[in-house]
């Protein structure tokens, strides 16, 4: 074969429509030669050199074709799961996510909300749970209260706290499984912060000193859950939430946040920074345990002796005698608060957990000024249980403890209505905000799975009351998992799996001290303050009711009183305008105005003669 024929073959091959090999650009001299001869001459007559004809081949030019690495095992796993019935059931491909992404998102969500296991059990157990005077070794009206809590009653409360850790985990599992499997949403559920404080401190009261016993309070939660379920079935849930005045809705979450922060600042369930003052009610505290004193309301009898006032209770150690800002546990808690805050600033997942773990780990060492196991009979018993580390604790006292004996009392229904209102606002707001954050909400404000999401939440409330805990709700911490890429119910199912594992570590979770929980409560309060920007403070018709709502919740230690106060003030401020508007609408003089306006408009259009 001659050189010219080889050139023609190569050029013809390079210009073939089916060829994937691109020819190189012609040199300027070659372009000039073709322009002189005219466009009619065929390209193969230009006699390109053999070198130029061979240049397009990558093997000769030194260029190598792009090589793709073989698929990894994770890629193969994600592809296999996505194409399976399991993947189609949870719409992994449709929502642009993978199996491993959902697992990672569920892990992130659990890390940010796992604090609820210790915090909820600690708060609800402050109500005394199912314990009563009969559990005291020496029964008396004051055996349940400080400074000398009866050992028998203290032991009963300790067992109840362990029950509540398992109840918290179990109710979280039920709610998260329902949300993940039926609604297919990446939202985790657990007993809500705020409602648990209202349950423990306002309804039942510290060690049962409130107006409704623990058993009846659980029945109130059960009734509220059933009503919630009916409202969800009938589709009235979102409509009922819109009936609440907007400033009260916006400020209620802020008030609950202040309530939680106030609890975290006190001695009983917090860091002890705020203390009691006989003259100003509140003052700076943070004094050591040995410098605290309790308050006992007494009366002088006719015979000159002192006696506890009937119906009164002995307070916790909330009066600082001396040594303000010298409490070792306070400074340890302050370090934990700074750790949580720094992690939040850096967007580190599990920020609250890191702070709790840091403070708790240091408090577990015996023989220190910050130990959670002092050298007392109660401390020795707690330390013996702590050393078990792994132990499945069956619920023995809180499950099925409901009692409907107080269903005819007004206080019972006050608790039901408050629980219902808070759950409607909290859950509805959380569900819609999380669905919007994940990109699920359409132009009509709806999102896929919302019906089953409401149903799952209501069912979890009923289940939680049967286990002995406060109302269950969707957690705003689910945003962490959504930020990690969670888009399906597999995220919620992953959280449920972690809660199942936590049931076997009750000895560790029950040994978390209050000064480790306090910083978490304060930080949660900070997070809930962001809703304050939704209030129209320039409009006093909204600003005043909003302020009354948010300020009464912490200062009266009651969410219900804050809601009642805010709604009442809103109605009173707008009553005159509502009455004036109604008068204009139904008065005889006002009914003629629209007729004149219509006639004038029609006359201007030239369609009616006057």
Automatic annotation (TrEMBL):
Say which domain of life the source belongs to: Eukaryota
Q: What parts of the sequence cross the membrane?
A: 164-183, 217-236, 248-265, 328-345, 352-373, 451-476, 488-509, 515-532, 544-573
| GO cellular component terms listed in the entry, alphabetical order | endomembrane system; plasma membrane
Keyword flag Transmembrane helix:
yes
Segments carrying the region annotation (Disordered) are 32-53
| Name of a matching Pfam family | Xan_ur_permease
Q: Which GO terms describe its molecular function?
A: purine nucleobase transmembrane transporter activity
* Protein name, per record: Adenine/guanine permease AZG1
């Amino acid at each position: 074969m001659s050189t010219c024929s080889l050139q023609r073959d190569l050029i013809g091959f390079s210009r073939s429509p089916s060829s994937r090999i691109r020819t190189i650009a012609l040199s300027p001299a070659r372009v000039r030669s073709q322009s002189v001869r005219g466009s009619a001459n065929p390209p193969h007559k230009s006699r390109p050199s053999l070198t130029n004809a061979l240049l397009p081949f990558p093997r000769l030019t030194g260029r190598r074709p792009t090589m793709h690495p073989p698929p990894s095992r994770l890629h193969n796993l994600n592809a296999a799961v996505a194409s399976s019935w399991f993947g189609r059931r949870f719409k992994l491909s449709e929502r642009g996510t993978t199996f491993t992404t959902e697992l990672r998102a569920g892990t992130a969500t659990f890390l940010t909300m796992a604090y609820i296991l210790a915090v909820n059990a600690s708060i609800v157990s402050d109500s005394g749970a199912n314990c009563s005077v009969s559990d005291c070794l020496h029964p008396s009206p004051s055996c349940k209260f400080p400074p000398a809590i009866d050992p028998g009653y203290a032991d009963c409360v300790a067992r109840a706290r362990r029950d509540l850790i398992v109840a918290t985990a179990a109710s979280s599992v039920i709610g998260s499984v329902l949300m993940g499997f039926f609604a297919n949403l990446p939202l985790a559920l657990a007993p809500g912060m705020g409602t648990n404080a209202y349950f423990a401190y306002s309804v039942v009261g510290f060690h049962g000193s409130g107006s409704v016993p623990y058993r009846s309070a659980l029945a109130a939660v059960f009734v509220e859950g059933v009503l919630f379920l009916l409202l969800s079935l009938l589709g009235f849930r979102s409509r009922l939430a819109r009936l609440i005045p907007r400033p009260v809705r916006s400020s209620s979450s802020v008030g609950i946040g202040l309530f939680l922060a106030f609890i975290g600042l006190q001695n009983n369930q917090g860091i002890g920074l705020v203390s009691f003052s006989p003259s100003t009610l509140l003052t700076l505290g943070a004094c050591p345990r040995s410098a605290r004193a309790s308050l006992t309301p007494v009366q002088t009898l006719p015979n000159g002796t002192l006696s506890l006032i009937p119906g009164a209770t002995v307070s916790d150690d909330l009066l600082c005698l001396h040594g303000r800002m010298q409490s070792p546990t306070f400074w340890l808690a302050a370090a934990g608060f700074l750790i949580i805050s720094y992690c939040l600033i850096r967007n580190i997942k599990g920020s609250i957990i890191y702070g709790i773990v840091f403070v708790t780990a240091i408090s577990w060492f015996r023989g220190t000024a910050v130990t959670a196991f002092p050298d007392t009979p109660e401390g020795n018993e707690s330390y013996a249980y702590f050393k078990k580390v792994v132990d499945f604790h069956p619920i023995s006292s809180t499950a099925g403890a409901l009692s409907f004996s107080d269903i005819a009392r007004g206080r019972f229904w006050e608790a039901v209505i408050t629980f219902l209102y808070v759950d409607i606002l909290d859950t509805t707001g959380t569900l819609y905000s999380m669905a919007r954050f994940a990109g699920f909400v359409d132009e009509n404000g709806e999102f896929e799975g919302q019906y089953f999401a409401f149903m799952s939440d209501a069912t979890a409330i009923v289940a939680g009351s049967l286990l002995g805990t406060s109302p269950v709700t969707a957690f705003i911490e689910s945003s962490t998992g959504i930020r990690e890429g969670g888009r399906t119910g597999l995220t919620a199912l992953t959280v449920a799996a972690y809660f199942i594992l936590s049931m076997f570590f009750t000895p560790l979770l029950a040994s978390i001290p209050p000064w480790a929980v306090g910083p978490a409560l304060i930080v949660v309060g900070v997070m809930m303050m962001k809703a304050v920007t939704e209030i129209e403070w320039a409009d006093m018709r909204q600003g005043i009711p909003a302020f009354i709502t948010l300020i009464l919740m912490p200062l009266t230690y009651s969410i219900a009183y804050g809601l009642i106060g805010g709604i009442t003030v809103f109605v009173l401020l707008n009553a005159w305008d509502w009455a004036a508007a109604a008068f204009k609408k139904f008065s005889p003089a006002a009914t003629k105005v629209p007729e004149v306006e219509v006639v004038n408009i029609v006359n201007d259009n030239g369609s009616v003669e006057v």
